[in-house]
Design goal:
Helix content is 39%, strand content 27%. It is built from three helices and seven strands. Strands 5-4-3-7-6 form a five-stranded mixed β-sheet. A two-stranded parallel sheet has the order 1-2. The two termini are 30 Å apart.
């Protein structure tokens, strides 16, 4: 079984979602199914079909969360060095060609949230930055070609 790397924050977020889905959401879906059954003939009941699909999707998500949490290995980012781009690092970079600057937080794949600047350590840019230090240049192969990024600073998020 492959382990699932998570930060403490990511683990707690996943556990909270699992609790919500397996309690409140399960009851809501069960109520939807019950109401749909009350309408009679189930063969031509679109509401019943929709409720069954919602139940199936909910149970799939619950199962996936249970599996990931069971295989989780929590990495304490506070224990990692702060001068190297590692898991949990907040990395400010500059694209050497365009001179655009970006700030990314390196996170496990399950915690990716691009809108919050959280990129996966398994993504091309995340992989390219891992292990680098301040002022190092990372040459990263991306779908558009090769991008050269210089690390301006590294801190803990």
């Amino acid at each position: 079984m492959e382990r699932v790397i998570l930060t403490r924050e990511g683990y707690e977020k996943m556990a909270k979602e699992l609790t919500l889905l397996s309690t409140k959401k399960r009851r809501e879906v069960a109520d939807m199914l019950e109401k749909a059954r009350a309408h009679g003939d189930l063969r031509e009941n679109a509401e019943y079909d929709a409720a069954k699909l919602a139940k199936q999707q909910l149970e799939t998500r619950i199962g996936m969360l249970q599996d990931k949490l069971a295989r989780a290995e929590i990495v304490e980012v506070s224990d990692l060095p702060t001068d190297i781009a590692l898991l949990g690092a907040k990395v400010e970079i500059i694209n050497i060609e365009t001179e655009e600057t970006f700030i990314y937080i390196l996170v496990p794949q399950d915690e990716t949230d691009f809108e919050k600047g959280k990129i996966s350590i398994t993504s091309p840019i995340g992989k390219g930055l891992l292990g680098k230090t301040k002022d190092e240049i990372a040459e990263i192969v991306v779908p558009a070609g090769i991008v050269k990024l210089r690390i301006i600073s590294i801190s803990r998020s």
